[in-house]
């Protein structure tokens, strides 16, 4: 499968497994899962057919491991704007986590900290390199340093998704080191 097709399928999955399942007539269960056959049938019925082999390749080859297939079902690992409970237990984060953003967001971040916006959680990266890649999707990246140890000591909870993304409800400005 060529790179363009892989990207198109991955974006299609993101839209319908994280944000708009109803658009193609699928229903995610409470944990965000849907039967693979149901997804394939719905995608074909809505003008975007792809094969089980293509789906498996997109899931296996995705560098961010955004999706998982288990027991004939598929779900996104995190990033949902629809109500799901991924069932992730509270976890002890590393002392420092990172968040990639762009300069135009810094004023709001200084005032409010990191908020989930239209998602359920704030997404944090375990390393600077990953945060840089995340921030670069929207322009020149700015990497923020999160004092996760201090947050945890103050009672904030963290969870880690299946693909290594750290999730929390909010990062107050006092736990962030911002550039300049």
UniProtKB/TrEMBL annotation:
PANTHER family: PUTATIVE PHOSPHOTRANSFERASE (PTHR12684), TRNA 2'-PHOSPHOTRANSFERASE 1 (PTHR12684:SF2)
Taxonomy of the source species: Bacteria, Bacillati, Actinomycetota, Actinomycetes, Streptosporangiales
The entry's keywords: NAD, Transferase
Key word Phosphoprotein present: no
Functional description taken from the UniProt entry: Removes the 2'-phosphate from RNA via an intermediate in which the phosphate is ADP-ribosylated by NAD followed by a presumed transesterification to release the RNA and generate ADP-ribose 1''-2''-cyclic phosphate (APPR>P). May function as an ADP-ribosylase.
Gene for this chain: kptA
Name of the featured protein: Probable RNA 2'-phosphotransferase
HAMAP family listed in its UniProt record: KptA
Uppermost EC category: transferase
Family per similarity comment: Belongs to the KptA/TPT1 family.
GO molecular function, one term: transferase activity
UniProt-listed Enzyme Commission number(s): 2.7.1.-
């Amino acid at each position: 499968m060529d790179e363009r097709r892989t990207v198109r399928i991955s974006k299609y999955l993101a839209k319908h497994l994280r944000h708009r399942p109803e658009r193609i007539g699928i229903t995610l269960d409470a944990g965000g899962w849907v039967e693979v056959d149901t997804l394939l049938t719905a995608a074909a019925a809505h003008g975007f057919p792809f094969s089980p082999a293509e789906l498996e390749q997109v899931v296996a080859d995705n560098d961010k491991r955004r999706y998982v297939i288990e027991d004939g079902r598929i779900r996104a690992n995190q990033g949902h704007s629809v109500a799901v409970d991924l069932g992730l237990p509270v976890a002890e984060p590393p002392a420092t986590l990172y968040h990639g953003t762009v300069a135009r967001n810094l004023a709001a971040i200084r005032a409010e900290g990191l908020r989930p916006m239209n998602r359920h959680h704030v997404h944090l990266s375990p390393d600077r390199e990953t945060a840089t890649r995340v921030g670069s999707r929207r322009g020149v990246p700015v990497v923020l340093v999160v004092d996760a140890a201090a947050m945890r000591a103050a009672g904030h909870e963290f969870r880690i998704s299946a693909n290594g993304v750290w999730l929390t409800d909010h990062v107050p400005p006092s736990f962030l080191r911002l550039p300049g």
